[in-house]
Fold this sequence. Notes:
The chain is of the alpha/beta class. The chain has helices at about 5-10, 10-25, 40-45, 65-85, 95-105, 135, 155-165, 185-195, 205-210, 245-260, 265-275, 280-300, 330-335, 365-370, 375-390, 395-410; strands at about 30, 55, 60, 90, 115, 140-145, 145, 150-155, 170-175, 195-200, 225, 240, 315-320, 340, 345, 360-365.
Amino acid sequence: MKHPSLEQNFPEIYGILQKEMTRQKNGIELIPSENYTSQAVIEATGSHFTNKYSEGYPHKRYYGGQQFTDMIEEQAIEKAKKIFNAEHANVQPLSGAVMNIATYFALLEPGDTILGMDLSHGGHLTHGHPVTHMSKIFNFVRYKTDLSNDGKIDFDNLREMALKHKPKLILAGFSAYSRNLDWKKFKEIADEVGAITMADVSHIGGLIAGKVLDNPLDFGFDVMTTTTHKSLRGPRGGLILSKQKYAKAIDKAVFPGLQGGPLMHAVYAKLVCFAEADTPEFQTYSQQVLKNAKILCEELRSLGYTPLSGGTENHLIMIDITKNGLTGHEAETALDNAGMTLNKNMIPDDPRKPLDPSGIRLGTPAITTRGMKEIEMKKIAHFMDRAIRNHKDLKALSQIHSEITEMCIDFPVPGIE
Ligand code: DSN
Protein backbone atom coordinates (compact mmCIF):
# COMPACT_ATOMS: atom_id res chain seq x y z
CA MET A 1 0.00 0.00 0.00
CA LYS A 2 1.33 3.42 -0.94
CA HIS A 3 0.99 6.10 1.73
CA PRO A 4 0.05 9.53 0.45
CA SER A 5 2.26 12.48 1.20
CA LEU A 6 1.12 15.49 3.22
CA GLU A 7 0.74 17.45 -0.01
CA GLN A 8 -1.44 14.74 -1.58
CA ASN A 9 -3.52 14.09 1.51
CA PHE A 10 -4.07 17.59 2.88
CA PRO A 11 -3.17 20.16 0.21
CA GLU A 12 -4.59 23.05 2.22
CA ILE A 13 -2.60 22.20 5.35
CA TYR A 14 0.47 21.66 3.18
CA GLY A 15 -0.15 25.07 1.63
CA ILE A 16 0.27 26.83 4.97
CA LEU A 17 3.78 25.37 5.30
CA GLN A 18 4.61 26.55 1.79
CA LYS A 19 3.55 30.07 2.74
CA GLU A 20 5.67 30.00 5.91
CA MET A 21 8.66 28.80 3.90
CA THR A 22 8.17 31.68 1.46
CA ARG A 23 7.95 34.10 4.41
CA GLN A 24 11.21 32.76 5.79
CA LYS A 25 12.89 32.93 2.37
CA ASN A 26 11.80 36.46 1.45
CA GLY A 27 12.32 38.21 4.78
CA ILE A 28 15.16 39.14 7.07
CA GLU A 29 15.01 37.27 10.38
CA LEU A 30 16.38 39.42 13.16
CA ILE A 31 14.80 37.82 16.24
CA PRO A 32 17.97 36.96 18.22
CA SER A 33 16.54 33.71 19.58
CA GLU A 34 15.67 32.32 16.14
CA ASN A 35 17.78 30.59 13.53
CA TYR A 36 17.53 28.43 10.41
CA THR A 37 18.47 24.82 11.09
CA SER A 38 20.33 22.75 8.53
CA GLN A 39 18.50 20.39 6.20
CA ALA A 40 20.01 17.55 8.29
CA VAL A 41 18.36 18.87 11.48
CA ILE A 42 15.02 19.28 9.64
CA GLU A 43 15.23 15.68 8.41
CA ALA A 44 16.07 14.35 11.87
CA THR A 45 13.22 16.34 13.44
CA GLY A 46 10.79 14.90 10.89
CA SER A 47 12.09 11.35 11.31
CA HIS A 48 10.44 8.09 12.39
CA PHE A 49 11.92 8.43 15.87
CA THR A 50 8.74 10.42 16.51
CA ASN A 51 6.92 7.06 16.65
CA LYS A 52 8.82 5.80 19.70
CA TYR A 53 8.06 5.90 23.42
CA SER A 54 11.27 5.90 25.49
CA GLU A 55 10.49 6.83 29.10
CA GLY A 56 13.59 6.39 31.22
CA TYR A 57 17.22 6.65 30.20
CA PRO A 58 19.50 4.50 28.00
CA HIS A 59 19.43 0.85 29.18
CA LYS A 60 16.86 1.74 31.88
CA ARG A 61 13.62 2.19 29.92
CA TYR A 62 10.02 1.33 30.60
CA TYR A 63 9.30 0.08 27.04
CA GLY A 64 10.96 -2.39 24.66
CA GLY A 65 12.44 -1.66 21.24
CA GLN A 66 15.10 0.76 22.46
CA GLN A 67 18.16 -0.48 20.54
CA PHE A 68 18.38 2.64 18.42
CA THR A 69 16.91 5.20 20.77
CA ASP A 70 19.55 4.18 23.32
CA MET A 71 22.19 4.62 20.64
CA ILE A 72 21.12 8.15 19.68
CA GLU A 73 20.60 9.32 23.26
CA GLU A 74 23.99 8.00 24.39
CA GLN A 75 25.71 9.63 21.42
CA ALA A 76 23.86 12.92 22.00
CA ILE A 77 24.94 12.92 25.67
CA GLU A 78 28.58 12.27 24.77
CA LYS A 79 28.61 14.96 22.05
CA ALA A 80 26.93 17.51 24.35
CA LYS A 81 29.50 16.79 27.09
CA LYS A 82 32.31 17.22 24.58
CA ILE A 83 31.20 20.50 23.00
CA PHE A 84 30.41 22.08 26.38
CA ASN A 85 33.22 20.50 28.39
CA ALA A 86 30.66 19.11 30.86
CA GLU A 87 30.76 16.17 33.24
CA HIS A 88 27.08 15.32 32.74
CA ALA A 89 24.37 16.05 30.15
CA ASN A 90 20.63 15.48 30.08
CA VAL A 91 19.34 15.82 26.51
CA GLN A 92 15.66 15.14 27.21
CA PRO A 93 14.15 18.51 28.27
CA LEU A 94 11.29 19.31 25.95
CA SER A 95 11.88 23.06 26.08
CA GLY A 96 13.80 25.86 27.74
CA ALA A 97 11.15 26.46 30.38
CA VAL A 98 11.01 22.76 31.28
CA MET A 99 14.80 22.51 31.55
CA ASN A 100 14.95 25.44 33.98
CA ILE A 101 12.03 24.20 36.07
CA ALA A 102 13.55 20.70 36.27
CA THR A 103 16.86 22.24 37.36
CA TYR A 104 15.20 24.19 40.20
CA PHE A 105 13.46 21.06 41.44
CA ALA A 106 16.67 19.04 41.16
CA LEU A 107 18.72 21.44 43.28
CA LEU A 108 16.27 23.12 45.65
CA GLU A 109 13.43 22.61 48.10
CA PRO A 110 10.19 24.62 47.86
CA GLY A 111 10.66 27.96 49.58
CA ASP A 112 14.39 28.18 48.82
CA THR A 113 15.73 31.50 47.57
CA ILE A 114 17.07 32.07 44.04
CA LEU A 115 18.89 35.28 43.10
CA GLY A 116 18.30 35.96 39.38
CA MET A 117 18.24 38.83 36.91
CA ASP A 118 15.25 41.18 36.77
CA LEU A 119 13.11 40.61 33.65
CA SER A 120 13.10 44.21 32.42
CA HIS A 121 16.89 44.31 32.85
CA GLY A 122 17.33 41.34 30.53
CA GLY A 123 16.36 38.30 32.62
CA HIS A 124 13.84 35.67 31.58
CA LEU A 125 10.29 34.75 32.55
CA THR A 126 11.47 31.38 33.86
CA HIS A 127 13.90 33.15 36.18
CA GLY A 128 11.08 33.79 38.61
CA HIS A 129 8.84 36.45 37.13
CA PRO A 130 5.81 36.88 39.40
CA VAL A 131 3.40 35.62 36.67
CA THR A 132 5.03 32.16 36.65
CA HIS A 133 4.07 29.19 38.81
CA MET A 134 7.71 28.84 39.88
CA SER A 135 7.53 32.22 41.62
CA LYS A 136 4.91 30.72 43.93
CA ILE A 137 7.10 27.75 44.79
CA PHE A 138 10.53 29.34 45.15
CA ASN A 139 11.49 32.71 46.59
CA PHE A 140 13.03 34.69 43.74
CA VAL A 141 14.95 37.90 44.43
CA ARG A 142 16.27 39.98 41.57
CA TYR A 143 19.43 41.83 40.73
CA LYS A 144 19.54 44.62 38.19
CA THR A 145 21.93 46.26 35.77
CA ASP A 146 23.56 49.61 36.47
CA LEU A 147 22.10 52.21 34.13
CA SER A 148 24.85 54.68 34.99
CA ASN A 149 27.54 52.18 33.94
CA ASP A 150 26.49 51.30 30.37
CA GLY A 151 23.80 48.99 31.72
CA LYS A 152 26.32 46.42 32.95
CA ILE A 153 25.43 44.12 35.83
CA ASP A 154 25.95 45.89 39.15
CA PHE A 155 28.10 43.35 40.99
CA ASP A 156 28.31 45.45 44.17
CA ASN A 157 24.53 45.38 44.39
CA LEU A 158 24.46 41.69 43.46
CA ARG A 159 26.90 40.88 46.26
CA GLU A 160 24.94 42.95 48.79
CA MET A 161 21.76 41.10 47.80
CA ALA A 162 23.52 37.76 48.07
CA LEU A 163 24.82 38.60 51.56
CA LYS A 164 21.38 39.84 52.62
CA HIS A 165 19.14 37.10 51.15
CA LYS A 166 21.56 34.13 51.39
CA PRO A 167 20.23 32.49 48.20
CA LYS A 168 20.59 28.74 47.82
CA LEU A 169 21.15 29.33 44.09
CA ILE A 170 22.56 32.22 42.08
CA LEU A 171 21.28 32.27 38.53
CA ALA A 172 23.26 34.02 35.82
CA GLY A 173 21.66 34.32 32.41
CA PHE A 174 19.50 36.50 30.20
CA SER A 175 17.32 36.78 27.16
CA ALA A 176 17.80 40.47 26.45
CA TYR A 177 21.28 41.60 27.46
CA SER A 178 24.09 42.38 25.05
CA ARG A 179 27.13 42.22 27.34
CA ASN A 180 29.35 39.32 28.35
CA LEU A 181 28.66 37.96 31.81
CA ASP A 182 31.56 37.91 34.24
CA TRP A 183 31.26 34.25 35.22
CA LYS A 184 34.23 34.53 37.60
CA LYS A 185 32.58 37.28 39.63
CA PHE A 186 29.30 35.37 39.84
CA LYS A 187 31.17 32.31 41.10
CA GLU A 188 33.17 34.29 43.67
CA ILE A 189 29.99 35.82 45.13
CA ALA A 190 28.23 32.45 45.12
CA ASP A 191 31.17 30.83 46.92
CA GLU A 192 31.17 33.61 49.50
CA VAL A 193 27.55 32.86 50.44
CA GLY A 194 27.64 29.10 49.77
CA ALA A 195 25.21 29.23 46.84
CA ILE A 196 24.94 26.80 43.93
CA THR A 197 25.77 28.42 40.57
CA MET A 198 23.47 28.02 37.59
CA ALA A 199 23.99 29.64 34.19
CA ASP A 200 21.14 29.80 31.71
CA VAL A 201 23.01 30.34 28.44
CA SER A 202 20.02 29.69 26.17
CA HIS A 203 20.81 32.67 23.97
CA ILE A 204 24.55 32.13 23.73
CA GLY A 205 24.80 28.32 23.89
CA GLY A 206 25.91 28.18 20.26
CA LEU A 207 28.47 30.93 20.79
CA ILE A 208 29.93 28.98 23.71
CA ALA A 209 29.97 25.72 21.71
CA GLY A 210 31.49 27.72 18.83
CA LYS A 211 34.27 28.82 21.21
CA VAL A 212 33.75 32.55 20.78
CA LEU A 213 32.34 33.23 24.26
CA ASP A 214 33.50 31.99 27.66
CA ASN A 215 31.95 28.82 29.07
CA PRO A 216 30.66 29.18 32.65
CA LEU A 217 31.48 25.51 33.32
CA ASP A 218 35.15 26.41 32.83
CA PHE A 219 34.75 28.86 35.73
CA GLY A 220 33.41 26.17 38.04
CA PHE A 221 29.66 26.69 37.58
CA ASP A 222 27.62 23.77 38.91
CA VAL A 223 24.90 23.70 36.26
CA MET A 224 24.39 25.21 32.84
CA THR A 225 21.14 25.11 30.86
CA THR A 226 20.65 26.00 27.21
CA THR A 227 17.99 25.75 24.60
CA THR A 228 19.13 23.98 21.46
CA HIS A 229 17.31 26.05 18.84
CA LYS A 230 18.83 29.51 19.17
CA SER A 231 22.50 30.25 18.39
CA LEU A 232 23.13 26.48 18.68
CA ARG A 233 20.96 26.07 15.54
CA GLY A 234 19.33 22.77 16.44
CA PRO A 235 15.76 21.57 16.97
CA ARG A 236 13.51 23.27 19.53
CA GLY A 237 14.33 21.86 22.97
CA GLY A 238 16.45 22.09 26.10
CA LEU A 239 19.72 20.70 27.43
CA ILE A 240 21.05 20.54 31.00
CA LEU A 241 24.79 20.26 31.63
CA SER A 242 26.22 19.85 35.09
CA LYS A 243 28.88 18.59 37.40
CA GLN A 244 28.68 14.85 37.99
CA LYS A 245 27.59 15.37 41.61
CA TYR A 246 24.25 16.79 40.41
CA ALA A 247 23.71 14.21 37.65
CA LYS A 248 21.37 11.90 39.51
CA ALA A 249 19.20 14.68 40.91
CA ILE A 250 18.89 16.36 37.51
CA ASP A 251 18.01 13.16 35.67
CA LYS A 252 15.36 12.31 38.28
CA ALA A 253 13.93 15.83 38.13
CA VAL A 254 13.53 15.66 34.34
CA PHE A 255 12.06 12.13 34.34
CA PRO A 256 9.99 11.02 36.18
CA GLY A 257 9.83 14.28 38.13
CA LEU A 258 8.51 16.52 35.41
CA GLN A 259 8.29 14.91 31.97
CA GLY A 260 6.84 11.75 30.51
CA GLY A 261 8.13 10.30 27.25
CA PRO A 262 11.01 12.23 25.72
CA LEU A 263 10.64 13.42 22.12
CA MET A 264 13.11 11.01 20.54
CA HIS A 265 12.93 12.70 17.13
CA ALA A 266 14.10 15.87 18.91
CA VAL A 267 16.86 13.93 20.71
CA TYR A 268 17.93 12.58 17.29
CA ALA A 269 17.96 16.12 15.88
CA LYS A 270 19.91 17.34 18.94
CA LEU A 271 22.55 14.71 18.15
CA VAL A 272 22.79 16.08 14.61
CA CYS A 273 23.00 19.65 15.94
CA PHE A 274 25.76 18.77 18.45
CA ALA A 275 27.70 16.99 15.68
CA GLU A 276 27.39 20.12 13.54
CA ALA A 277 28.49 22.33 16.43
CA ASP A 278 31.59 20.16 16.86
CA THR A 279 33.11 21.36 13.56
CA PRO A 280 35.47 24.16 12.50
CA GLU A 281 32.67 25.47 10.22
CA PHE A 282 30.49 26.09 13.25
CA GLN A 283 33.29 28.05 14.92
CA THR A 284 33.66 30.20 11.79
CA TYR A 285 29.89 30.73 11.79
CA SER A 286 29.96 31.78 15.47
CA GLN A 287 32.78 34.26 14.84
CA GLN A 288 30.76 35.80 12.02
CA VAL A 289 27.64 36.07 14.23
CA LEU A 290 29.63 38.29 16.61
CA LYS A 291 31.25 40.33 13.83
CA ASN A 292 27.88 40.89 12.18
CA ALA A 293 26.26 42.01 15.45
CA LYS A 294 28.99 44.60 16.05
CA ILE A 295 28.74 46.02 12.54
CA LEU A 296 24.93 46.12 12.58
CA CYS A 297 25.00 47.79 16.00
CA GLU A 298 27.55 50.43 14.96
CA GLU A 299 25.76 51.20 11.70
CA LEU A 300 22.48 51.66 13.58
CA ARG A 301 24.25 53.92 16.06
CA SER A 302 25.65 56.03 13.21
CA LEU A 303 22.08 56.37 11.88
CA GLY A 304 20.89 57.82 15.19
CA TYR A 305 19.77 54.80 17.22
CA THR A 306 20.79 54.23 20.83
CA PRO A 307 22.01 50.72 21.65
CA LEU A 308 21.44 49.86 25.32
CA SER A 309 24.45 48.81 27.42
CA GLY A 310 26.57 50.95 25.13
CA GLY A 311 26.82 48.31 22.38
CA THR A 312 27.09 44.57 22.00
CA GLU A 313 29.56 41.83 22.89
CA ASN A 314 27.32 38.99 21.75
CA HIS A 315 24.75 38.33 19.01
CA LEU A 316 22.11 40.66 20.40
CA ILE A 317 21.29 44.36 20.18
CA MET A 318 18.78 46.24 22.33
CA ILE A 319 17.56 49.68 21.27
CA ASP A 320 15.41 52.22 23.10
CA ILE A 321 13.28 53.11 20.08
CA THR A 322 11.18 55.73 21.88
CA LYS A 323 14.19 58.01 21.40
CA ASN A 324 13.39 57.85 17.68
CA GLY A 325 9.74 58.71 18.23
CA LEU A 326 8.17 55.21 18.02
CA THR A 327 7.05 52.66 20.58
CA GLY A 328 8.40 49.12 20.46
CA HIS A 329 5.10 47.87 19.06
CA GLU A 330 5.04 50.51 16.30
CA ALA A 331 8.62 49.70 15.31
CA GLU A 332 7.99 45.94 15.29
CA THR A 333 4.90 46.39 13.08
CA ALA A 334 6.59 48.76 10.63
CA LEU A 335 9.61 46.48 10.28
CA ASP A 336 7.36 43.45 9.83
CA ASN A 337 5.56 45.25 7.00
CA ALA A 338 8.93 45.98 5.44
CA GLY A 339 10.05 42.31 5.61
CA MET A 340 12.22 42.45 8.75
CA THR A 341 11.19 40.41 11.77
CA LEU A 342 12.33 41.38 15.26
CA ASN A 343 10.59 41.81 18.59
CA LYS A 344 9.49 44.65 20.82
CA ASN A 345 11.10 44.36 24.24
CA MET A 346 11.08 45.95 27.66
CA ILE A 347 14.07 48.11 28.51
CA PRO A 348 15.44 48.38 32.09
CA ASP A 349 12.77 49.79 34.44
CA ASP A 350 10.58 50.40 31.40
CA PRO A 351 7.81 52.92 32.11
CA ARG A 352 5.73 51.33 29.31
CA LYS A 353 3.76 48.05 29.27
CA PRO A 354 5.10 44.65 28.02
CA LEU A 355 2.77 44.61 24.97
CA ASP A 356 3.92 48.06 23.89
CA PRO A 357 7.31 48.59 25.52
CA SER A 358 10.02 51.13 24.77
CA GLY A 359 12.55 48.83 23.16
CA ILE A 360 13.26 46.56 20.25
CA ARG A 361 15.55 43.52 20.36
CA LEU A 362 17.40 42.13 17.37
CA GLY A 363 20.28 39.81 16.61
CA THR A 364 22.37 38.11 13.96
CA PRO A 365 22.30 34.27 14.31
CA ALA A 366 19.72 33.67 11.54
CA ILE A 367 21.00 36.15 8.95
CA THR A 368 24.55 34.86 9.49
CA THR A 369 23.37 31.31 8.76
CA ARG A 370 22.18 32.58 5.38
CA GLY A 371 25.72 33.73 4.65
CA MET A 372 25.14 37.46 5.14
CA LYS A 373 28.24 39.43 6.13
CA GLU A 374 29.48 42.98 6.71
CA ILE A 375 28.01 44.52 3.52
CA GLU A 376 24.57 43.08 4.18
CA MET A 377 24.67 44.23 7.84
CA LYS A 378 25.09 47.81 6.66
CA LYS A 379 22.29 47.38 4.13
CA ILE A 380 19.99 45.96 6.81
CA ALA A 381 20.68 48.91 9.13
CA HIS A 382 19.70 51.27 6.31
CA PHE A 383 16.58 49.24 5.48
CA MET A 384 15.61 49.42 9.16
CA ASP A 385 16.21 53.14 9.30
CA ARG A 386 14.10 53.75 6.18
CA ALA A 387 11.27 51.62 7.58
CA ILE A 388 11.33 53.42 10.91
CA ARG A 389 11.39 56.86 9.32
CA ASN A 390 8.51 55.87 6.99
CA HIS A 391 6.63 53.77 9.51
CA LYS A 392 3.22 55.17 8.59
CA ASP A 393 3.72 54.87 4.83
CA LEU A 394 2.59 51.39 3.77
CA LYS A 395 3.69 51.96 0.17
CA ALA A 396 7.23 52.83 1.27
CA LEU A 397 7.32 49.77 3.56
CA SER A 398 6.17 47.53 0.73
CA GLN A 399 8.89 48.96 -1.54
CA ILE A 400 11.51 48.14 1.14
CA HIS A 401 10.11 44.61 1.37
CA SER A 402 10.55 44.15 -2.40
CA GLU A 403 14.17 45.29 -2.19
CA ILE A 404 14.78 42.91 0.71
CA THR A 405 13.24 39.99 -1.20
CA GLU A 406 15.59 40.81 -4.08
CA MET A 407 18.62 40.84 -1.75
CA CYS A 408 17.57 37.54 -0.13
CA ILE A 409 17.77 35.66 -3.47
CA ASP A 410 21.56 35.43 -3.04
CA PHE A 411 21.26 34.06 0.53
CA PRO A 412 19.18 30.86 0.50
CA VAL A 413 17.58 29.46 3.64
CA PRO A 414 18.85 25.87 4.17
CA GLY A 415 16.37 23.44 2.65
CA ILE A 416 14.28 26.10 0.89
CA GLU A 417 14.91 26.50 -2.87
N1 DSN B 1 11.57 33.28 23.80
C1 DSN B 1 12.98 33.27 24.02
C2 DSN B 1 13.62 34.53 23.59
O1 DSN B 1 13.20 35.03 22.58
O2 DSN B 1 14.54 35.03 24.21
C3 DSN B 1 13.32 32.99 25.40
O3 DSN B 1 12.41 32.10 25.91
